Every structure is written in C-alpha cells, then in structure tokens.
Amino acid sequence: MAKRSAALELAILGVLAETPQHGYELRKRLISVLGLFSTISYGALYPALKSLVERGLLVEQDEVGTGKYPKRARITYALTEAGTAHFNAMVADSGPGAWDDDTFAVRMSLFGQTDVSTRIHILQGRRSRVEDRLANLQTNLSKGRERLDSYTLELQQHGLDALEREVRWLNELISREQGAAGSGNPQTSQVNKK
Amino acid sequence: MAKRSAALELAILGVLAETPQHGYELRKRLISVLGLFSTISYGALYPALKSLVERGLLVEQDEVGTGKYPKRARITYALTEAGTAHFNAMVADSGPGAWDDDTFAVRMSLFGQTDVSTRIHILQGRRSRVEDRLANLQTNLSKGRERLDSYTLELQQHGLDALEREVRWLNELISREQGAAGSGNPQTSQVNKK
DNA sequence: GTTAGCATGTAAGGAGTTACATGATTTT
DNA sequence: AAAATCATGTAACTCCTTACATGCTAAC
C-alpha cells in the first residue's frame, strides 16, 4: 500500500535473497548495487525491516560470538520461506506501480535471480509505461506548441528525447533476451530504431 | 522546510504570477505547462494554496457574478506584493534542493519571467548537480565492475549516458544564454561535447 | 586517548495520496 | 433526466526525513 515502500521492500528482499546481512551493510549494498536510492535513511530502513519481520518474511538472527567481535549488536536478516515466496511474487507482479522508475530499476537490477520470461515480461511492461508517457508528452506538446514559451518547449523536448532513447534501449534488451531464449512474440513498438 | 513543497509552491507562485486563477484550472496548467507533476491531487493543491494565503503570499478573490455564472463557487488566487517578492527570492535561491529534478524543471519552465544572469546561474547550478551525480556513479561503477552482474551494469550505464547527455544539453543552453547576454565566464565541464 | 566509522534504533514533524463528501453546470 | 465535468475541500493513513540517542571498535 505504499509507493516507494514497494520498491524498497523488493530491494531488501532481493538483496537478502542473495546474502543474509545486517542493516548497516544492507543499506550500503542497496545504495551501491542498486545505486538508485541516493540516500536510504535508517529511519526508513529499520522500520521496513521490522515490518518485514513482523509479517514473517524475514527472520532476525542475533550474531553471537563471530570470532573476533563476540558481543557486537549485529542482527542478521534472512528470508523465510514465506519471504522467498513473497519475493518471487513481487518480482513477477504486474500490479499498479510495477513499472515506476524506482520499482523497475530495482526489478532490473535483480534480473540475476529471474528467468528469461520474467525478464522479458518486465522489460515489455516498462516499455509500455514509457511509451504511454511519451504519447502523453507528445499530445501535450502538439496541443500547446504556440502557447508554451521556448524554455518550456526546450525542457519538454529534452524529456521526450530521453523517453525515446529509453524505448530504444529497452527494445535492444528485449531482443537480446528473446535471442537468448527460444523465440518469443515479435515486438510492437511506437518508436523506430533510428 | 519541505521537499516537493518547495517545487510545488514555486510552481504555483510562478503560474499565478502570469495569470491569477482558481484552483481547478491552476492544477491543469501545472500539469500541462510544467508537465512534471504527472498528478497533483487536490489533497495537495488546496492545502498548499491555503498555506500560501495564510502566509500572506496570496489573496483569495471570490469571483462574484462573472457574467453567465453568477454564483459559481470559484476562488481566484492572486499574488500579493509579498508573494511576488517571495517568488523572486525563490527563483534566485541556491539553497538545498534548488537543483533537484523537480525544482530545476519548475525553475526552467519559469525562465520566461527571469533575466539572463539568473537563468545562467540556474543552468550552471543544475550542471554542477548533474556532474556530481555523474562522478558518483562513475566511481561506484569502476569500484564494483566485477562484483556487479551484467544487468545492474547495463542499468547503471544507461543512467550514466542519460546524465552525460543532460550535461551536454545544459552546456548548449548555457552557451546560448551567454551569447544572448554580453560575455560571461567561460564554462568548465567534465563532459566533452563528443 | 581521541577521532572516525560501525551499528541499531526512536521521536517529531512534514508532505502527499486516496477516498470521501458536496454541489453546480453543461452536454447529450 | 442522466452523465460528464467543473469546483472545492476534508480526514485518515502512510511514508519518509531529520535529528537525536546510544554504544562498540578500529586506527592514529
């Protein structure tokens, strides 16, 4: 029922699915591996972990006596079975918010834990979303061509270019995946490859 | 003391500085002219307007008997003197958050109400911000080249390309402004123009 | 020893979204 | 008449950010 929360939870589960970790390190990985959340405050991370534990998706493992640092107050988090199931469900999900910038980025950076058909599904879903935005912007732009001042125009044109480039990028990725798999259904895109 | 609030308030003041309007229409203009806020809910807009009125930056003018629709419950908002002053201060501001995506976009779309030096200032500030992000990403990427899987790499590379393009775009805009004005200080950029 | 980084958490406060609530006006 | 859209607002809820509070460990 949240917005970024969905992306954040997915990211947490995804990283922990690879390696159980404690909060402090988890945060660093989220920042570097996913690179997306420029800053994830502890005020967001710990409550999120807590919530995941309460829902039975994670378990806390107090790290006692790990060699050199016997009494360090570390809490290692690991996925439960339910957590793994939930993670898989979230990755494959197509619900609202599934193609948002953040959520898509998280899902793509977790592609390593996914199969080809899921990857293609996500890439195509994202492409639809971007194409929608593109269409909106174009409509908007052609409608108000004259009424908008040059700076607004310039700004929106730049946004438009970025979207077109993303579609082309997604097309390439999709082709690559389809090449790796058997043959999928042919692509339908509104943007030409140059 | 807010984040988006800063961008939203700036946008509201900027649009009202051109033409006083009532909430409903204001929202539509914010969406189409600025194009940035895909959705601005009334639950965000009206409280924001209320706050601006309370702070003496806007005045409400009950629209009575405007020809055909005598009793329509419209409230037209217009800037006060203090509001105009505040708007000008915000546009020229360099405080934290001044170069964020949203805030920058709002400021640029309001360039029509600005003088050349302010425009250059804003464009350069934005460029610095983008270059910082670029540097971070590059560091991050060279550090973890091997540890990151190919998808994460691909994703970050795409983000990097987008940032580089934005810097080039900003360089062009800055040159254009400097050409229009007298001669400004020469540019220093980390990204070559290819 | 003292600074810097590791490590976990809470509390206050702000901002925004969704859903709800109401009513006028215009179009079909 | 019914449906769409204009028009304004509120309440509950969720989430995040900032700042604070605590202590251990490593390095200089």
UniProtKB/TrEMBL annotation, chains A, B:
Keywords: Coiled coil. Residues 120-180 form a coiled coil. SUPFAM superfamilies: Winged helix' DNA-binding domain (SSF46785). The keyword Magnesium does not apply. It holds the Pfam family PadR. Residues 12-87 form the Transcription regulator PadR N-terminal domain. This is Unannotated protein. It comes from freshwater metagenome. The lineage of its organism: unclassified sequences, metagenomes, ecological metagenomes.
